[in-house]
Amino acid sequence: MGASASTVESPGGPLQRAVFAVEGMHCAGCMRRVEEALEAVPGIASARVNYTLGRVAIQGDKAAVEPRRVADTLKAAGYDATPFEAGTADAAAERDLKRLLLALAVAGFAAMNIMLLSVSVWAGNASDIAPETRDLFHWISALIALPAAAYAGRPFYESAIKALSARRLNMDVPITIGVMLALALSVYQTAISAHHAYFESAVMLLFFLLGGRVLEQMMRRKTRTLAGNLAAFRTGTAERVNGNGSTEAVPPELLQPGDLIRLKAGDRLPVDGTIAKGGAEFDASMITGESRPVTLGAGDDLHAGSVILNGTVDVTVRATVGGSLIDDVQRLLEKATESRSRRLALADRASQLYAPVVHATALLAAVGWLIAGAGLHHAVVVATTVLIITCPCALALAVPAVQVAAAGAMFRLGLFLNTGTAIERLAEADTVVFDKTGTLTDPSFSVRLLGDVPADLARLAARLAQSSRHPLATVLAEQAVEPPFADITEEPGRGVRAEVGGQDVRLGSPDFCGLDEAQIQDAGGASLIAVRHGDRTAVFVVEQALRPDARATVQRLRDLGLQPAILSGDREAAVAPVAAALGIADFAAGLDPREKIERIEQRAAAGQRVLMVGDGLNDAPALAAAHVSISPATAVDLTQAQADAVFLGGSLGPVASAIVAARRARRLMTQNLAFAAAYNALAIPIAVLGYVTPLIAAVAMSASSLIVTANALRALPRRHRVPSSAPLATGKREAVPA
C-alpha cells in the first residue's frame, strides 16, 4: 500500500492529515472504538469519524498516518480501512448496498417458503400429519434455510468475527449466535424426529435485520455520493502568461505564487489571486453570496471560483491549489461534518448496552437451568429462545421505520431527507437562520421600470441586452423580440453601445448612460440598468422578489417556537430591506463562510440548536456546522449534499411543515423505543423461565417488529399538507433590492 493521496499538509502546523474509508461501522459504539484505537497510536494527535460518509480523518506525524500502519491498527480493532478516494469510496458504497439488497431478497424468498411449510405443520395435529410427512417438511425447510442463512447472514457473521477477533462485542455477535443456535437446534430436532424445528426463526430474524440495515444505507447514499466534491468550482486548465508574453495551458496544480494567468470572458479563476492588469466585472456569488456582479480592477483580490463576465484581465497567483478559499471551504466542511457525525442518534444510544446484556442474560439462563437439574438440550433451547426473543428487530426498526414513513410524509410536503438523523435534529431545533439570496428570495431576478418608458426604447434596451455578458442584463434580454445588433462595442464593467439611425444607443450603468445614480428616486438601493438613445433615457430596476410565502413561513416558525435570524454574504443594503419586510431584527450581512460558522458556533455555545437554511457555496460549511440544515433544490450540488434536507419549488412552506412533521416523528420514535424496551422487559423473564419455545419467540419477535412498523406509519399525514396556524402561499411576491 503506497502513500495516501488524501494525506495533505495541515494548514495549522507540521502535522499531516489523512482521510481513510472505514468498513464495518454500524453504530455509535463503532465510531467510539475506531477513534479510541487510532488515538492510542503514538504520533496520532486526533481521529474524527464521519459516520455518515464512512470515513475517519486523522491528524498526526508522517509515520503515524502512514496507510499501512493505520490499516493494521484498525484491522486489529475489527475494521477494514483504505486511503479515501472519492471514486473508490462511491463504488464501494454501491457494492455494499447491492450486496445487502441481494441478501435481503434471498432471506425474504427463503422465509416465505419455509413459512408455507411451517404453516402446513402448525395447521394439523399428530393425528392429521404423519411423522414421515412432518420430517420431510422439516428437511425441505433445512435445505432452504441453511444455504439461505449462510448467504444472507454474511454481513452479520463477518462483522461478528471481526469483533470477536478484536476481543470486543457488537450487536452482530448475539445475532450471529442466535442464528447459529437456532439452525443447529433445528437440525438436531429434525434429526431426532421432534415435533418442532425453528428454521423460520433464523431466516425471519435475518430478513428483518437486513431490512433495517438497507434502510439505513439508503438514507446515507446521497450524502456519501456528493459530499466534499468541489471539482465543479475549479477549471481544468489555466492560461499562464510566460515572460516573453506567450501563453500556455497548464493544470492549476502546477501554478506557483507569483505566476501570471490570463482570464477571458466566461473563465473561472482556478486559484486565489490579485488583478495585475485590466478590469472587468466578476460573478462571485457562489463564493461570497453577493447577488450582483462586482467591478474589479488592478490591485483587487479575487477568490478561486469567481467567473469573469466581460473583458480580459491578468491575475497574479496569490495562493496555489490547497490554499485558496475553496480549499478553506473544503476544510471547514470536513471539520463541521466530522463534528456533526459525533452526535448520537436515539437508536445508537439505546443499542450500546444491547450486546453485553443479551449475552449475559442468555448465558445466565442456560447456567441457571443446568444448576436446577435440567438437561443440556433444555438449557440450550432456553438460551436460544432468549437470544431470538430479545432480537433487536424492534429496536433496530424503531427509528428507521419512522424515518421512512416521515420521509414519505415530507416528500408530500415537497422536502427530501438527506441524512438518517435529520428528523431527530429538526425536532430539536429552536432557532432558524436563513441565508438571503436564493433562500428567502427567488433565485431569479425581476425587472421594473422607473416612470413611463416609450415602448421603442424598451425594445432597444432588450435588443442591446442580448449582447451583454452581465447577468442582470439577461433579465432584459429575455424580453427581446428582435435579433441582437450585429455591431456592438462593450466597455467592461460599464455597458454596451451601438449606433441606431445615426445616434448612439447605450445600455449599462447610469453613469455610462450619462445619469447620476444618486439622483434616481424610488430605486430603494436596488441594482439599476439604464438605456440611452440620443436625448431619451430610461432606467430599469432589477430586483429579487421574496418567496411568495416567506413572511407567512417566518411567522409560522415563530408560532412553533423558533427564533428567526439572517446571516448573509450579501451587502447590508440588500439584506436590510429583506429583514425589515419579514420583521427579523436579528441579521448580519457581508459574512464570509468562516464568519458564518463562527456566528453559528456562538449560538450553539449559548445553547441554541440552529436550523440553517441556505443555498450558496458559501453556505455549505454553515449548513454542515449547524445542528440541522435545509437547502432549496435550486442550490448548488455541494450545498445540497451538506444539507440534511432539500425542499422543492418556489414555496418556503416546507421548512415550517418539516418542523411539524419531525416533531411528530420524534414522538413516534420515542414511543417505539419505549415499546421495544417494554417488550424485552416482559419477554425476557418469560423466555428465561422456559415458557416460550424458539418458534414462539420468533413469532413474538416478528409481532413486535410489526407493531413498531404499524406505529411508524402514523407519521404519514392524513392529507398532503401538515395543518398550519398561518396561511402560506399568497401568490404575491414582494420585491426587494437585488
Structure in words:
The protein is of the alpha+beta class and 738 residues long. The protein has five domains: 8-84, Alpha-Beta Plaits; 92-227 and 339-400 and 670-715, no CATH class; 232-320, Distorted Sandwich (Calcium-transporting ATPase, cytoplasmic transduction domain A); 415-442 and 547-667, 3-Layer(aba) Sandwich (Rossmann fold); 446-545, Calcium-transporting ATPase, cytoplasmic domain N. It has 24 helices and 28 strands. It has a seven-stranded mixed β-sheet with strand order 15-27-26-25-16-23-24, sandwiched between helices. Strands 17, 18, 19, 20, 21, 22 and 28 form a seven-stranded antiparallel β-sheet that branches. It has a six-stranded antiparallel β-sheet with strand order 7-6-8-14-9-12, with no helix packed on it. Helix 21 (620-625) links the parallel strand 25 and strand 26. The longest helix is centred in the N-terminal third of the chain and has 37 residues, at 86-122. The two termini are 53 Å apart.
Number of strands: 28
The general outline is elongated
- Name the average pLDDT: 76
Q: Compute the number of structural domains.
A: 5
Poorly predicted regions are 1-13, 222-232, 335-346, 719-732
User: Spatial order of the strands in the main sheet?
Assistant: 15-27-26-25-16-23-24
Largest sheet: 7 strands, mixed
Strand content: 15-25%
Radius of gyration (CA) equals 32 Å
Helix share, percent: 40-55%
Count of individual helical segments: 24
Helix/strand structural class: alpha+beta
Question: What's this model, at a glance?
Answer:
By secondary structure, this protein is an alpha+beta fold. It is built from 24 helices and 28 strands.
